[in-house]
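Narrative of accomplishments. A recurring question from our advisory board has been how the design workflow behaves on a single, concrete structure rather than in aggregate. To address it, we present the structure tokens for one chain from the evaluation set, followed by the sequence designed for it. No filtering or post-editing was applied between the two.
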């Protein structure tokens, strides 16, 4: 279990940062002190609760089917702590689970979105080495903690979404390019994942009948380089 936790440190950090972002967006107030702001951000820890059953070998509590029900329960705790209306606490909790937990998993290693009805893993991998995104989000969160400025929080969110949108565009462009280039044989599958410690490049594998092609490409899907071809 210890090795699993260490391996997932970057991913866990990203989940917690996203949870802190969302909770402060919902419950942060102008008159709050730094301590109060930190406590509000710490509520983002709930984003890890759906992952706890994974250590018991089940993903049943980490899907589109179960998270709405888990939100109904956790919202009671959030309501009591924040002293807000239940529907508002429910909205904050549900947004934290959807955006801070499920979405990050989907653009990471994937998630069994329909568990327990289906064990199929769904993924659109944009993140593998999350260091750059973690640094950006940490910097923004520390500035917000110090200044209590939600405009900075909004700007940080826009930068993060722009970064992910740019990566999504690059991945789709690369996939389209590879499909157009490999036409001699039916393509069985194409795997495109972030490459490099900052994830600024792509690494791809194309399986087409009896061929296996590996290579790299730039962030926007250009400058494609073939590193190996296997027959």
């Amino acid at each position: 279990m210890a090795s699993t936790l260490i391996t997932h440190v970057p991913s866990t950090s990203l989940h917690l940062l996203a949870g802190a972002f969302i909770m402060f967006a919902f419950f942060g107030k102008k008159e709050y002190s730094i301590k109060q702001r930190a406590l509000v951000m710490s509520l983002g820890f709930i984003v890890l609760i759906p992952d706890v059953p994974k250590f018991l070998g089940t993903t049943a509590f980490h899907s589109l089917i179960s998270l709405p029900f888990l939100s109904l329960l956790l919202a009671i705790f959030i309501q009591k702590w924040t002293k807000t209306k239940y529907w508002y606490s429910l909205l904050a909790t549900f947004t934290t689970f959807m955006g801070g937990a499920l979405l990050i998993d989907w653009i990471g290693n994937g998630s069994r979105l329909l568990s327990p009805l289906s064990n199929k893993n769904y993924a659109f991998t944009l993140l593998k080495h999350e260091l750059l995104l973690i640094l950006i989000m940490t910097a923004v969160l520390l500035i917000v903690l110090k200044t209590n400025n939600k405009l900075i929080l909004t700007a940080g969110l826009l930068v993060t979404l722009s970064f992910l949108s740019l990566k999504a565009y690059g991945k789709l462009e690369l996939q389209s390019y590879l499909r157009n280039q490999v036409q001699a044989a039916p393509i069985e599958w194409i795997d495109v994942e972030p490459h490099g410690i900052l994830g600024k490049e792509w690494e791809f594998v194309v399986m087409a009948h009896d061929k296996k092609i590996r290579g790299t490409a730039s962030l926007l899907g250009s400058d494609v380089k073939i590193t190996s071809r296997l027959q």
